[in-house]
Amino acid sequence: MAVNNNEPGPRPEQGGADQRMVVIDCISRRFSIDGGKTVVTALDDVSNYIDRGEVVVIIGPSGSGKSTLLRTLNGLESIDEGNIVIDGVDLADKKTNMNTLRADVGMVFQHFNLFENKTCLENIVLPQVVVLKKNREKAERVARDLLERVGIPDRENNYPRQLSGGQQQRVAIARALAMKPKMMLFDEATSALDPETVNGVLSLMKELAYDGMTMAVVTHEMGFAREVADRVIFMDGGRVIEEGSPGRFFDAPESDRAKKFLEQIL
Amino acid sequence: MEWFAQKWQVVESLAPFLLHGLWMTFQVSMIAIILGSLLGAILGVMKTLDSRALRLCIDAYMHFFRGTPYLVQLYLIYFVLPSLGIAWLQFDSYTAAIVSLTLYTASYVTAIVASAIDAVPRGQEEAARACGMTKAQRLYHIIVPQALRLTVPPMASVYVIVIKSTAVLSVIGLSELTRQGETSILRMPQDTMFIYALIAGLYFLYCYPVLRFARWAERRVGSSAAAQENA
Ligand SMILES: Nc1ncnc2c1ncn2[C@@H]1O[C@H](COP(=O)(O)OP(=O)(O)OP(=O)(O)O)[C@@H](O)[C@H]1O
Ligand SMILES: [Mg+2]
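^ inputs. structure came back:
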């Protein structure tokens, strides 16, 4: 099904058959470490979903599988069992072109990962030209608009290392948005930032959420989760332990593990 | 005064002969450096691809050519290969020199390029993958350009080693600089030391600019970003 719902904007009516952006069906992911002697189960039979326009915040202790889950959603991490369907595209299907899929799913990393050999503008232009085959002029126009939108219009000719962490992360968000993604993934996008730049990036993410972007966000910012999330997923040991609306989850967690986690972090 | 006059005479009479040797050394080493760098760059990139079989083959090649003396390799290619009786492996000394030196150069370049690619932070590859770039696009636009700047300093020292290795080619009768010098010594045995000094000077004349060029390139690559930004 080629639902070309690239433009952020009004979402389809709730309840339609097409309401799910992501369906995660019983996925597991194991890593063998120290030469195969030990097996770590990073994801253990996880099932879940993300609706169109929904903001899902994934929280949990270190090593609980949050990043691994996020990375399976754009195929950066493969899965051993189960299946994922994104906007009707079956990731397990051999015929699925993973690169086309990744162009549709934007990802923002903890350490920004801007292309070090390209200027800010080029960082945003290059994927549009190379992957979407857009012509350069159009791509540059998009890039300049986005740089303006993320609040750093005057740094287009700077190289990433000449920018602060917060500025780099804004460019990284712009780079992902330039692909007109159906969905955005954020893996601890503010964890590597100085405290004073965290809020700027968070409010940018908030804007995106209010514009209707479908988002999966791994974060330790509980204030953000409470305010912006439609649903919170709590993970531990590679499993989803508990999920619910942020109000319900933060004020009345059900599982002991979630209670303990929240006690430690709040 | 007389000493100088005598030595000058030696220089005058040997100059065309030795310069011919230098030219041959220059030619063979340059061809080997260019072909070896191209071959090494290709093999270096291939070594970082996902194929295990490919990696094992390239490793075997690298270990053989880096783990044995160049002289032995040259003997194998010039004296042993022809005895296999395969027509296109019957090299004359010039071809044998270029083939062996190219393979020797490429074995080092392969190692340099592969480890430079490995040294590019993983996040760069991941970000490019997350944007939907294919493996080839990732390599071409992101990984290789960042790896190349890391290769400049080690590459220069390999080139100098290759240039000096051409001295070994005298054993298969190639009229390169060392061979021409040895022949000269047979003609003028009383000037042995002086002729060796001349040869050393000529090698230095060739290697030193290479090293200087390398240092210049290193600085340029290092500051290319800053230069572009000021432009
Ligand atoms: N590439 C890998 N190789 C081996 N083990 C891995 C790999 N990636 C993740 N793991 C393991 O899988 C488990 C889950 O890791 P993951 O990175 O998903 O956790 P996380 O919840 O994101 O933790 P953090 O909050 O520290 O980022 C961990 O035990 C981790 O060590
Ligand atoms: Mg993580």
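The first helix of chain A runs from residue 66 to 72. The first strand of chain A starts at residue 20 and ends at 33.
thumbs up if we can close this ticket
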